[in-house]
Each structure stands twice: as C-alpha cells, then as structure tokens.
Amino acid sequence: MISVEQALQTIANSAQDFGVEEIPLLQSLGRILKEEIKADRDFPPFHRVAMDGIVIDYSQFQKGQRSFKIEGIQPAGSEQVLLKNPSNCIEVMTGAVLPMHANAVIRYEDIRIEKGVATILLNEICEAQNIHQQGKDSKKGQVLIKQNTRISAAEIGVLATVGKDKVKVAKNPKVMIVSTGNELVDVGAIPLAHQIRRSNVFTLVSLLERLHIPSETAHISDDKWLLKAKVETYLTQYDVLLFSGAVSKGKYDFLPEVLDQLGVEKLFHTVAQRPGKPFWFGKSTLLLASHQDVPLKKEKNQTKNTLVFAFPGNPISTFVNCLVYFYPWYHKSIGLKEEEETAILAEDVSFKPSLTYFLQVTVNCRFGHLIATPIQGNGSGDLASLVHSNAFIQLPKEQAAFVKGAAYKIIRYR
Amino acid sequence: MISVEQALQTIANSAQDFGVEEIPLLQSLGRILKEEIKADRDFPPFHRVAMDGIVIDYSQFQKGQRSFKIEGIQPAGSEQVLLKNPSNCIEVMTGAVLPMHANAVIRYEDIRIEKGVATILLNEICEAQNIHQQGKDSKKGQVLIKQNTRISAAEIGVLATVGKDKVKVAKNPKVMIVSTGNELVDVGAIPLAHQIRRSNVFTLVSLLERLHIPSETAHISDDKWLLKAKVETYLTQYDVLLFSGAVSKGKYDFLPEVLDQLGVEKLFHTVAQRPGKPFWFGKSTLLLASHQDVPLKKEKNQTKNTLVFAFPGNPISTFVNCLVYFYPWYHKSIGLKEEEETAILAEDVSFKPSLTYFLQVTVNCRFGHLIATPIQGNGSGDLASLVHSNAFIQLPKEQAAFVKGAAYKIIRYR
After folding, report:
1. Which of B63, B129, B60, B68 is nearest to B98 (CA)?
2. B4-18+172-334 belongs to which homologous superfamily?
3. Which chain A residues have a beta carbon less than 8 Å from that of B79?
4. pLDDT value at position A105?
5. CATH number at B22-43+137-170
6. Are B216 and B177 in contact (CB under 8 A)?
7. Could you tell me which chain A residue has the CA closest to the CA of B97?
8. Is residue A156 scored above 60 in pLDDT?
9. Percent above pLDDT 90 for chain B
10. At what angle do helices B200-209 and A153-161 cross, to 10 degrees?
11. Domain B341-412: CATH class, spelled out
C-alpha cells in the first residue's frame, strides 16, 4: 500500500501529450490553448476617441479660444478626417479614429452647441484628454495570451479581436468508462430486489464533461473471459480506461488478474486513503505491428499506450478518486497548472487510521475566509450525501486530530 | 442615474419563469432541476454486504465457535440465499444481499480458509458488522435532491440511481445577442485602419454558455431604420435581447430612441458605476393577436415579454454588466440562490468618484483566505487585461478609500 503522495507522483509521471487540434473559436470555451496569441496590430490600432463630443486643437484652447465652429464629423468606423482649420472643431464618436491635427476631446456633457458652434464650458482641459492612445493596451507582436491557458469568456474576446476564428487547443484523450458487477441494471430498468441501477459511469462521464472531455461508456458483467476479451479490444482503441468496481478482494473481482494477463503493467494497487483505498492503476504499452485499424507512421512498429484507472466500485470511492487522481493527471498531461485551494475547518475532526482522509465538507465563504463544515455521510456507499456537500477536504494520514481553524487542501466538485 | 443596488432590484423584479422541459439525463449536467427527486426504494434497498469475506450467524461466534464450513456463496447481483445450517458460513461479496439467517460479515483479511472451512482469526467481532443496513442512507420516499438544484456530477449519480433517465429542468430563455457599430468587422476579416473586429458578442455568448444558455448573434450597422426593423422582429421572437453598444451620447447611438419608438419601456438608463455606466435596461410587452408564428393559447390575446439589456460597447463594460446584471437576473428567474463570495483586498485602493467601482482583481487562495490583488488595466477598452485577472471586486460608492485587509464582494468569471 502506497501513500496518496506516492500515488500522485506515479500518476504525474504517466502524464502524456495527446497533441493539438484546431477547432472553431466558439467551440474552444473551456479548452486549453495550445498556441501563443500575439497582438496582430497595436491595441487600440489607432488613437481612439474615448468619449462622444468634439475634438479640437489643444493649442487654440491654451490661447484662450472657447467657441469652435463645427467643421465636420468623425463617426466610428469611418476613415480618418482632417481638422482643416485649427480654430474649428470636429464632432467625434466613441470608437472613432482621432481626426488629424486634433488632440483634445471634450465630452458633450462639457459643451454647449448652438448654430453649428460648440462652446466649451470648462476652464481647464488637458492635452490628449479622452483619447485612448494607439498601442496603449498592447503593442503589435506582444503576447496577449500564453500557451496552456484555459479558454474562458475573456480569452474568447481577445481571440476574436486578433482574428482567430480557429484556435489550436489540446486534443483530448480517447476515454472509455466501464462499469462491472452483475448487480447493476440500466437507469431505465426496474431493478429486482437484489439489483441496483448503474450510476458510477454517469457520474464519471459528468466529472469528465466538467473538464470538457467526451467519453464513452460500457458495462461488462462479472465474467472473466468476457471481461478479458472486451478489455483487450479497448486497449487497442482508447488512451484511457476508467473502471468502477472489480478491484477488491471479492471472488468476482477479476479485473487485476485480467489486466495482468493482458500485459497491463500494474503501477500500484491500494492507496493509504479513505474512501477509495483499493484503487488500481496501471499502464499498457502495445506494440502495434500492422493492425488494420491503426494507420502506420514511418516507423514499422508503433506503440499504443493506454492508462488504466481502476477505481473501487463504491460511489464515493469512484467519485473521490476521479477528482484526486484523474483530474491532476489530465491537467499535467495538457500542461495546465491548477492552483491549490485550501479551507478552514469549522469544527474539530478526529480520524485515527493511518490513512489520508477525504472528508466530505460544505465550503462557504465568509468575509474572505473559506470555511469547510464536515457533513455526516454514511460511508463510501452513500452517494446521496454528495448532494449536500460541495468539496472534499484532504486530511493528512500523519495526524489523527484536526483542530477547528486549521486550513487543509480542498477539492471542490461543483 | 440610479445606484447599482437600485438597478439590481429593478432587474430582480423583472425575473421571469420560462417553464420546464424534460431532457435526457446526461444532457442535464449544469442545468437547474425542476422536480423534487425522491428515493424510489430504500438505500441500500436491502441489507447490503459491505466487505468481501464470509457471513455467519453471530450467536454461534458468541458461543465460542471459530471455524465455519463454507455452505455456499452469495455474489452481488444474485437472489438472496439462505444460511441453512447456523454452524456454517456463506462466502459473500461486496454489494451482495445479506443471506437470510446470517448477521455478521468477516473480511477475507480476518479469516483463513482451508479445505472448505473458514477460521476466524479475530477474538472479537460485532453483530451486524460490515453490513450496510437497508434504508440506512435514505428511506423510500425521502427527498434526495431538492427542486432548483444545479445538477452536478453528484446529482447525476443520484438521478441515475433512482431511475431518472429523463429529467425535468428549467427551460432557457431564447436569447439574441446583437452588436452595433460601423467600426466592427467579422473575426475572419482583415480590418481596415479605422476598423476593429467584433468581439463582444462572442464574449457574451461564452458568458451565457457558462450558464448553459444557448444564444444567437447578429450585427446591425449604425442605420436607424435598419436597427428599428430588426429589433422590431427580434422583440416578437426572443425572450431576451442583449446589446453591446449604441447606448451612450453619440450621434449614432440610436438604440434608446429606437427602443422607445418600438414601445419598449425604459426601466433605467445609466447606473452609478465604473465601468459600465451607460447601461440601458427595459422591457417590451407586445400584444400578439393572431401572429402566425405564435400558437394561440386559450386567451384571445397573448402577450410576449422581452427584456432588453443594452450594455455599453466598451469590452470591459459589456463583460462586467453581463456578470453583474444578467447573471443574477437569470439565477432569480430559474429559482437558484447563488451564494455571495467575498475576498480580502491585498492592497489599499483609492477611488474618489461617487460610483460603485468594479475593480479587476486576481483572486488567490492562501491558507483558507481569498486574497484579491488588483491588476492594472488601461480602462474599459482594455479587453486583454481580463486575461490576467479572474474576478471583479465590487467597491461601494459610499467610500473613496478601501484598505488592505478589508473584505468585499467578488464576482468571478473563470
């Protein structure tokens, strides 16, 4: 049995680059940018009028002139006009190019217009006021968004501004999520007395959807030969297999044996944690000679790597292990650094086993403090308890008593 | 000019119920549940074996018996078997129904099996140990998920467990997002010197996608008659119109005038805030007699309500106003209570105008404290600055000095 930290190190070492794909701008929300985005021009690209009003030659104001004949208009989206007579002014609109030979914008609020003449009502104005200078925000060629940024609405706006109607993002791994166990029936079915409905695969699909990773699902009954045949096929087709169940000590927990027979290298099995201890993690490296489904590259023999995350079948165990292990593996694989979040325990907690304890908590924010209140669940089978909390707090195995007011790492799931 | 608080009150009063739709389970992630979810049976639905091992009649152990002949096996997913001879035991698997006449499960780790006989290696065991009692987590009929809950992976699991392959969720409003301004060209185009690319509509689409609201987009040039004709049509077709631009004092800011001509009631225009001050908000109520596109209900005359959020065209103004006004309006409309988040200022801030100040900050978590560090932008036109922050902190207009260490409301956008 290894520690959570050792398990995380092994998983980080198994991070893998799945390449890059180019997708339409509006589909890229939530994905990880895989190119550096530079300013294609200065921003603003011209001296930009920042207020609706008039523009004048500032030196005329300095000389004492207050009334200016309106010579013309400069709307946004029109070519730059010229202030022909320095004693005149031009009406200008927000977003317009600053007219040539003019250098101070006065707001409509600060002028009075009568018979084509604008009179400034202020005693003082500044040169270049209400003008957003060309290149003030960014210079042409400047990096606006770094590679490996998660694309949010803010990045979408910048990508549009620099003309990226297609965006390079991290390609997703191909993921298959498999449930096992003869007690499971479909969601739409009426279970018999000894049966329950499948739920873990859908929880996992949803946890992956949160990362914008699509996935497929399958169910395999507790039959060793069927399990072996199906997993053998999946290993040639998918980058990642997520299992829920069949990894503990039961007579029908065939998965570790089957994976061993299929040459999947076990990297660890069982982690010193609660819930989720019987977690099995391994890696398959297949030599693909000339398999018809796999197009050959230049090399004669290609290898196909598949990672196998085999989570214990209890709902909370599957749930927490996906968050604790799959999430960081994925973030490492795509080059994203996720910031650690911590919260303050709202009450004393005692946990004696020498295991890392992932305790369900409700995290609330009070005056800038994140407060984690433990919620009472009924153990790793009580899926419904997750509805009443929003995070797990990670209590280290070296301690048995955790005092109110101490801060520990949290893992939010909503 | 009204205050942010007054504006929010007016917007809350305009909240509207858009009804309910039933969608497939896996499409419901992120949506708002519009039915109460009850346990369709006890959970667990039977006394459930919680460990792999054997089950015995506890009274035999009490009498001193330690070795038990294995009489049979109870796998998960099989009908309940019976312990025929109280001196025997049955092998049981996690998830199985507890065999009849047996009441203590001993883990494989705590027994030795030789020649079909299991010997218990413990001196003490408890009655009912390692058994997850029927109904322990939830009783049949108990509410598992309340109405108006946002569906996360946790809820998906519970919904699957109780057999909801279809789920009732809040229907989304039909939203049209419109940009105006002759200076704007398409993302794929090369702008002329005096032009820039459209970006605000895509930012808004993305901010709405974050709420799982699909939307459509359009662009209208600065032509009063065209604007009027298009908006007139939109008012019959959409529940919400979001505009970016054309609401300030410019000669081509026709929107307030056009909306007035079309009978859209102005609820307010300009809010005491920076950025985003010239925000226009109003409501259209059309009497639809027998319009062919609108199926008639029982009443002869139907009304069609449309809300108009007309945001100022500067990128940061549009961005912040969508978060500050559209988001709470939507949450109120679908019945979701969003918890307020606060963060602690990392440095002193001075802001003299009597305006609510939405300051861009980067929020980090340190030992359970949320720390908000202001970032230096170049005003409301500097969209790229949003890439370097993750939230706005809302500084009230009654104050001019905000000291390091004080906590204020934050609005995160990633």
Report:
1. B129
2. MoaB/Mog-like domain (3.40.980.10)
3. 192-194
4. 97
5. 3.90.105.10
6. yes
7. A194
8. yes
9. 89
10. 160
11. mainly beta
Show residues of chain B in contact with A188, CB under 8 Å.
163, 165
- Residue from B391, B272, B404 nearest B350 by CA: B404
Q: Which of A160, A92, A147 is nearest to B315 (CA)?
A: A160
Which residues of chain B are modeled with pLDDT < 50? none
Tell if the pTM clears 0.90, that is, is over it.
yes
Across the interface, whether the CB atoms of A386 and B206 are under 8 A apart is answered no
Contact of B308 with B281, CB cutoff 8 Å: yes
Nearest to A171 by CA among A285, A34, A303, A294: A34
> ipTM for the complex?
0.93
Q: Cβ separation of A370 and B371 shorter than 8 Å?
A: no
Q: What is the pLDDT of residues B4-38, one digit of tens each?
A: 999 999 999 999 999 999 999 999 999 999 999 99
Give the residues across from B302 on adjacent strands. Answer: B288
Burial class (CB in 10 A: 0-12, 13-18, 19+), B12: middle
Burial level of B339, CB count in 10 A (0-12/13-18/19+)?
exposed
Task: Answer yes or no: do A163 and B29 touch at CB < 8 A.
Answer: no
User: What CATH number matches the domain at B48-132, 3.40.50.10750, 3.40.50.720, 2.60.40.1090, 2.170.190.11?
Assistant: 2.170.190.11
Check residue B91 and give left, alpha or beta (phi > 0: left; psi -120 to 50: alpha).
beta
Rounded-to-integer distance, Cα A219 and Cα A155, Å: 39
Instruction: Say what the pLDDT of residue A246 is.
Output: 83
Choosing among A81, A92, A206, which should be mutated to test the B contact, i.e. which has the most B CBs within 10 A?
A: A206
| Domain range list for chain A | 4-18+172-334, 30-39+140-170, 48-132, 341-412
Q: Which two tokens stand for residue B201?
A: 């509509």
Interface of A with B in 50-79 (CB under 8 A): 50, 52-53, 73, 75-79
pLDDT, tens only, A381-412: 688 899 999 999 999 999 999 999 999 999 99
Is the Cβ of B366 closer than 8 Å to some Cβ of chain A? yes
